Amino acid sequence: MLKNLPIEDLKEGMTFSNSIVNKYGQVLISSGTQFQIRHLSLFRTWGIQFVSVTCNENNTPNEEVNSEIKELAVEQLKRRLLWEPQKEVELDMFNMAIIHLVKRLSNEQENNI
Amino acid sequence: MTIIEKIESGVSKLPTLPTIYSTLSEALSNPRTTVDDLAKIISSDQASSLKVLKVVNSPFYGFSGRIDTISRAILYLGFNEIHNIVLALSIINLFAKKKIIHKFRPVEFWSHSIGVGTSARLIGEALGVSKLENYFVAGILHDIGKLVFFDQFPKEYTEVLKYCEDNKTTILEAEKKILGIGHDFAGELLAAKWKLPLSLRNAISNHHTGFVNGRLDLLVTSVHLGDIITRFLDLGFPGDDFVPQPNAKVFDMILLPSGLFMNMKDKLLNSYRDTVSLLLVE
What we know:
The structure holds 2 protein chains of 2 kinds. In chain A, 41% of the residues lie in helices and 15% in strands. Chain A contains 3 helices and 5 strands. A 3-stranded antiparallel beta sheet of chain A has the order 1-5-2, with no helix packed on it. Chain A has a two-stranded antiparallel ribbon with strand order 3-4. Chain A is elongated and about 50 Å long. Chain B is built from 16 helices and 2 strands. In chain B, strands 1-2 form a two-stranded antiparallel ribbon. In chain B, helix 1 crosses helix 12 (183-193) and helix 5 packs across helix 6 (79-95). Chain B is globular and about 55 Å long.
């Protein structure tokens, strides 16, 4: 899965899908290289905040959730929206909020047990 | 007295900004001012200088505890960023300990504003803006018009807050219905009283559209989207529970990286939590 991630969210084993270049266009890291922690200082030196990487099943965060909680989250969020997300960017915002809400509801449920 | 005259009179009764901010503004307008001069002004107010150091050492700026003096903070972050941090801290302090009216609590109001400041800065970064020094403070200040109502018209504002709940509307619509004007306009008046820079005044008066006089302005657009993201994530309380639709014209004019918000979420939430605990927890 291809993702554009903030450098803080990178995990070892993710593969750069594009070459990383500095502001002069010089290649710092070639595409296909696997991310290593030491790359972070290079990104910070050149002010690189986001990079495009390919994630595999070992380094994609596990976001499997209880479907009942997800349904509840969707219902709660839709009640607060007076419109229907349709554009890709609106759906991106909506999905981000659902993941956050699912986590909050799951924590609440765990605390109640 | 018309509603605008009433609001103008309310704005005139609000406090002026602390001396430290006006002294700094004056010093910054003098081309002969040195880093040491500015450091002396900030350091003369011990409470402010401690908070400035806490903020510049927060993970938000990425220096993680390495900045131990105000002079160094100015060298690393620049005059304007430090000036903006002092401005944000000054305004938060002016209104931090006000009473709760209805469900509107100052701490929750500022938490929402910090969420908008944090998101606006991250959105600006994603848009490739190189000078981000106004983004955080613009988000912090975007809703200051609500403080005019909150402070000077508590009775009427309670009615506005109740109207939102009863009629499922945003606070902006309720303000226009009950008071005749919105917090965007009241904020513009307060920003003028405080002589805030034009970029911040634009963000305060146009954060509901993302445009300034029909022209795209990346700072204003970032605050507009930051406000919506913060409402989506339910961070703090801006006066109503609703998430307004982003201005569709914004997406015709800027290209956001695909999956930006999903990818930004964790960083945003971490920065938000750190900043809230730095600025709002005594």
